[in-house]
Each structure stands twice: as structure tokens, then as C-alpha cells.
Amino acid sequence: MQGRVEEADDKQNGRGFLAKWKNTAYRARLLHTTWLFLSFISLGFIGGQRGPSFLDLQLLTNTDVEEASLFFTSAAVGGLIGALVIGASYDRFNKPRLIFLANIGMGVCVGVVPQCRQYPLMIFIWFITGFFMRGLETAGTADVVRVWKSETRPYMFIVHLGLSTGSLFSPLVTEPFLVPKHLVEKQTLDTGVSCNATFVSIENPPNISCINNQTNSFQPTTYVIQLQHAFIISAILAGLASLPFLVKSFKDESTLAKVDNSRKAEEQRTVPPLYYVISILLIMCMHICNSGIFDAFSAFLMTFVVKQLDWSKKDGALVTSAFWACLVTTRIIVIFVVDLITPAKLLLFALCFVICALIGLCMCALYLVHTGIWVFVCVAGSALSVLFPTLIALADKELIPVNGKVSSFILVAGAIGLLTNPVLLGFFIKEFSALWFCYLLLIEAIMSVVFLFLILIYGRMILKRVRKRTVMEIDIDSEHFVQDTLMDDLKNVDVNLDDKSHV
Fold it and tell me: Average of pLDDT values for 466-480?
């Protein structure tokens, strides 16, 4: 019955778009969502840049795969702290100003990344960059919930479409600035080569001599590291996207507060603290798996195809862009059909496709079916596009209402996934083979399905009863309160009558 009411409300909201457009508050919320969309484009651009630039970052810092994977781990640790700090600060400070600071901080830090040739310094700058990136995602996600409340679902997809759009174009923009694979393939550190790479300008490319540890012979190779240009583009995008929030931070946001989409009484679900904590933990566990899969595709897909299939960096950048193109296309389509399917079914379908895609990738990599790699990467991109926005809808529908605090916990879980996956993948790829890209993600996808069923069982069989009992207790307390109030009023009337009779 409740699902039918929600569907009816959604249809009514869809028919009333023109009427809503005449509302000044509605237009203000749409404009605010547009600025968030642009901020998430810059966020996605920077996030999508890490994978294609990974091998060049190795050259820049003279590290191997396992050592360089700590860059991503450092960014994940920074993201974990950033999600906690920004999430805790969100309700206490000026919200547009907080988003501006996270955005501009992210831009400044990413512009400095190519200048950090020392290994410890590179780890530190990725830590700060991750802090601002995850802080921006936390504040932006919470802001969508704050602005749209019960109408959050499609707009959450729209904002995160910006993240996917930035990640789509990022590899294409970054690829022209990468060192060609054929110039450095003999200097690969995994084969026992130590290369003293120097950050140089384009105008004066020097000869960079690399020493083979096995033969102690000099192998001069000329290449130019131009990575700074790609990262400067990222910094400019982040700076431009932050400007609207700088302006909004000095303006009155009372228009956004005048909303007519507040939650209905039946949606204000009161949950006891213990059950609330269990709900949060279930959501976090599932998102740890989901974020690990998502981040591994964006960060390690190029490394997988270059090392396992001997593709060029250009082909790796193209297949990464194909992944993001399918993700963006599917996310656009889902915006229009998101109300036609329940979050649980949509998540289950998506995870099943992810599992099939990973199995297909593994088989194609083993038997060198290059066309199959493209197909299954596209399938994985389409399936992964719905995971995060739908997980928020699932939590809101099956467990607890999603607010800024819940969004922060979810993104903290995402940071935990980003923290653990690069370390595991870097270790397994170095010690065994790049096929562990498929193996590890397949394990995480299966675990995500298990957590999905646990959430459904817990929400529908346990939490539903707890809510009913809590609502009954609230109703009884309310009745007692009303009765006590009436008795007090009657006593006051009797006292007044006695006073008048004495007079």
C-alpha cells in the first residue's frame, strides 16, 4: 500500500513539472543542483585521471606497482578523514562556503601533484587531495538530500552523472600527455630496472639514462614527462566549479528552505539506537564492496590491460573512456526510469551484471579475446553506474531515512573501500598476475549481493516490526499526554470555579 502511494506521488510530481517551474524556490533548487553537477564534473575528472596517469606517476617517483599503489591508499586515508571532518562540519557551518573550500582545496592540491617527485611528498599530496575530494562528495551528497528531501532520487542520479561525465573525458584529455609505452617498456621496474626519471619541460627534452640492474649496462632512452599539463587542466576545472559556491556563501539561502517536498508523517521513521547502528553498519559494509569495485575499474583498468594483455597506453585510455561512456549513458537513461523499479531489484540486476562482466573479463584475458574485453568493460560500466545512487535509495526505503549524517557514514565506508582495494590489488598484481584484478573484484561483487539480501531481510523482517512497535509506543505516549493535559485543564477549571464561589 505504501509503495502504491509513493508511485502515485512520483507520477503526480512528474506531471506537475511545469507548475513547479513557475515556483521561484523550485528554480533556485534546480540552479543549486546545476552548480553541484558542475562541481562533481571536476571531481570525476580528477578521479578518472588517476588510472591513466598511474604508470607515469611511477616514472615520476621511480616506484613499482606495489609502491605506487600507496598513492591511492594515501588518497583513501585522506578521503576517510575528509568524509568524517566535512560530514561533521556540514550542519555547523555555512554549507556553500564549505563546498567552496573543499572544491578549491581539491583544485590546488591536484595542480601540485606533478611537482612532487619525492615518494613521501607524493604520498602526502595525494592524502590532502583525497581529503578534499571525499569531503566535496560528502558535502555535495548531503546537500542534494537537504535541498530535495523526499524527491532526492532522480536528482542524486543527476548530480552523480556529473561525476561520471568528468571521469569519461578525463582519460581522453590525459592520454596525449602520457609517456608512450614503447619508450619505457624496457625500463619497467617489475623486470629489475631502475630508472632515474626527471620531471622536465616539453621544450628541452633531455636524454634520461636508465640502468639495468641485471646487466649493469646503460640504455639511454629519451622521453618527456608532460603530466603537469593534464593536472593543471584539472585544477582549472575545480577552481571554476568552486566560484558559484563562493558567491552563494555570501547570499541568503532562505529560498532553498521554502520547500514543499518535506517528508510525510509515515516517512519520519523512528528507529531505536541499536537498530539504527545495525542499519548503518549494513549499508556501510555493502558500500565498502561497491566502492572497491568502482574505484578499481577507474584506477586499475588501464594497468590491467597494459600488463595482462600487452595493450598500449593509448588503448588503455580508450577502454577506460569506453567504461565511463557506458556508465554515463546508463546513468542518463536510469534518471527517467528510476521510479519504475524498486531499489532492491535494480541493485540486484546491476550486481548480477557486474559478476557476469568480471567472469567474462577473466575468460577473455586468459584466452586473449581482445574484443571481449571491450564488451565486458562496457557491461561493467553500465552496471556500476547505478550502485551508489540506488544504494542511498535502498537505505532510505528499507532501513532509515537518509540525511546528511547517514550520507557521511556511507561515504566513510566508500573511503574504507578505497583504502583497502589499492593495497590488495597492488600486492596481488605484483606477486601473482594482473588477473587478480578480476578475481578480487568478483569476490567483492558476490559479497555485495550477500549484504543486499541481509539488508532486505533485516529491513523487512526485523526493522519493520520494530518500527510498528515504536509507532505504537509513540501513539500511546501521545494519548497519555493528551489525557494528562485534559485532566490538568479540568483541574484548573475546578480550581477557578472554587475561587469564584468563595468570592
Answer: 54
Helix, strand, or coil here: 360? helix
Query: How far, in Å, CA of 361 to CA of 369, rounded?
Result: 9
- 473 or 76: whose pLDDT is higher? 76
Amino acid at 366: L
Of the listed ranges 280-284, 367-371, 381-385, 453-457, the one predicted with least confidence: 367-371
Which residues contact residue 325 at a Cβ distance below 8 angstroms, ignoring those fewer than 6 apart? Answer: 168, 378, 381
Residue 116 near residue 122, CB atoms below 8 Å:
yes
Q: Does the pLDDT at position 189 exceed 70?
A: no
* pLDDT tens by residue, 38-63: 999 999 888 878 777 877 788 888 87
Residue 40 near residue 140, CB atoms below 8 Å = yes
Cell 578534499, residue located: 132
| CB contact at 8 A, 206 and 200 | yes
pLDDT of residue 212: 40
- How would DSSP label each residue in 28-87? HHHHHHHHHHHHHHHHHHHHHHTTTTHHHHHHHHT--HHHHHHHHHHHHHHHHHHHHHHH
Burial class (CB in 10 A: 0-12, 13-18, 19+), 436: buried
The chain-wide mean pLDDT, for the chain, equals 75
3-state helix, strand, coil in the chain (%, to 5): 80, 0, 15
- The mean pLDDT of 418-425, rounded to a whole number, is 76
Closest to 142 measured CA to CA, from 157, 156, 158: 156
Instruction: Tell me the C-alpha distance between 175 and 196, whole Å.
Output: 22
Residue 28 has pLDDT above 90, yes or no: no
Task: Output phi, psi for 209, to 5 deg.
Answer: -90, 130
Cα distance between residue 336 and residue 27, in whole Å: 20
- Average pLDDT of the residues in 436-442: 86
Distance CA 33, CA 30 (A): 5
* Contact indicator for 141, 77 with CB cutoff of 8 Å: no
> Helix (H, G, I), strand (E, B), or coil: what is residue 212?
strand
Q: 103 Cβ partners below 8 Å, 6+ apart?
A: 39, 42, 132, 136, 238, 239, 241, 242, 245
Neighbours of 337 (CB within 10 A): 10
Rounded Cα gap, residues 51 and 303, in angstroms: 8
